[in-house]
Amino acid sequence: MIDLFAKFDDVIAMREGLLASGVTDPFNLVMERVESPTVAICNGKRTILLGTYNYMGMTFDPDVIAAGKKALDEFGSGTTGSRVLNGTYGGHKAVEQALKDFYAMDHAMVFSTGYQANLGVISTIAGKEDYIVLDIDSHASIYDGCAMGNAQIVPFRHNDIEALEKRLKRIPEGAGKLVVLEGVYSMMGDIAPLKEMVAVSKANGAMVLVDEAHSMGFIGEHGRGVAEAQGVIDDVDFIIGTFSKSVGTVGGFCVSNHPKFEILRLVCRPYVFTASLPPSVVATATTSIRKLMDSADKRAHLWENSKRLHGGLRQLGFMLGTDEPQSAIIAVIMPDLEKGAAMWEALLNEGLYVNLARPPATPAGMTLLRCSLCALHTEEQVGEILGMFAAAGRATGCIS
Ligand SMILES: Cc1ncc(COP(=O)(O)O)c(C=O)c1O
């Protein structure tokens, strides 16, 4: 018998090697109590959260919580069915309407996760005979969507406009083309040059899908994302998003102005062959999305936080993923996994939680400490965070 788990031996060795050094397992932390979007109790200790995707701090919003409780009382704990059978309630329609209003688009389709939204939309619209041109640093759900549809995959160098154009020009005449981009790339926290990339894609006859998972609610005048901020949202054919970040719950979606968009509800397998989101989840999402429409002050404060943290970390001597803050994510580059894990643990002991990210999720084999800010982090908390980075950085020899 061939042990089908043999393929994981490298990962097992990496994990055992890391734990043998005595470091706390960075991928097994328990949030014992969550007090607010910015503070939790971990290992019995008050810990500032700087590694969640709770960019707009909606998880404890009183209106959001009240909407969820009301829906739970009125509609029960789950739908136990697909959207195309018994799983469409008024709440699912309401959240799709909220998305249409938020993005000012004609159509919105809600999936059970953002992962499934990418999986479903990409695999359904780009099939065997079609070409998908995508940034090499694309999220796993994008790659999985490409693989599921059996389209020809043509990757190009991260954020390289010329490389995108070259790839597009090499595709045979008459073939279907989909360009897949992200607004914010979540590992390094950098944004895409969407203005140029969308123009190049359109000039070469491609449809464009942009995953705005990490920009919704924050970037752009109305929080519609990087495509809005760069003035090209009307030229984007499909926007993919998630409820698991700024919206503060779980779920995924696609919005579009394509006149035939609604047919996806019948042909998109990750939409059809799974249960719909619980009524309490869609109720919290609807309330949250509607509140995000009116959150300019929070957006401004989050930018302040991002600038303050980026500048402070730089001053301390850390190497960062971007020269300037471009989003709510600030990536601190570590020399290797061992140092990264030691620094991660030292920060946790100081009372700070960040994400430790390692290959294959990260580009170029890097180990990163990913910091994601929240609009509810106070100026004082950002100061505290910088103090913790200074202490942990010196203790582990990451900075002098
Ligand atoms: C760019 C991007 N797309 C999609 C997803 C999937 O979102 P969800 O958590 O809703 O499955 C993520 C999640 O991390 C992401 O970073």
CATH fold assignment of the largest domain: Aspartate Aminotransferase, domain 2
Net shape: globular
Low-confidence blocks of residues: none
Largest sheet, spatial ordering of strands: 4-12-11-10-7-5-6
The level of helicity is 40-55%
CATH architecture name of the largest domain: 3-Layer(aba) Sandwich
Number of strands: 16
Strand content is: 15-25%
- Which hetero ligands occur in this complex? pyridoxal-5'-phosphate
N- to C-terminal distance: 53 Å
Total domains = 2
Mean pLDDT: 96
Calculate Rg over CA atoms: 21 Å
Count of alpha/pi helices: 14
Characterize the main sheet: 7 strands, mixed
Order of helix and strand elements from N to C terminus: HEEEHHEHEHEHEEEHEHEEHHHHEHEEEH
- The CATH class of the largest domain, by name, is Alpha Beta
Per-chain topology:
Layout: H1 9-20, E1 33-36, E2 39-42, E3 45-49, H2 62-75, H3 90-103, E4 107-111, H4 114-125, E5 131-135, H5 140-149, E6 152-156, H6 161-170, E7 177-182, E8 184-185, E9 190-191, H7 194-203, E10 207-211, H8 226-229, E11 238-242, E12 252-256, H9 264-267, H10 269-272, H11 279-292, H12 296-316, E13 329-334, H13 337-350, E14 352-353, E15 355-357, E16 367-372, H14 379-396
Parallel strand pairs: 3-14, 5-6, 5-7, 7-10, 10-11
Antiparallel strand pairs: 1-2, 2-3, 4-12, 8-9, 11-12, 13-16, 15-16
Helix pairs in contact: 2-11, 3-11, 4-5, 6-7, 12-14, 13-14
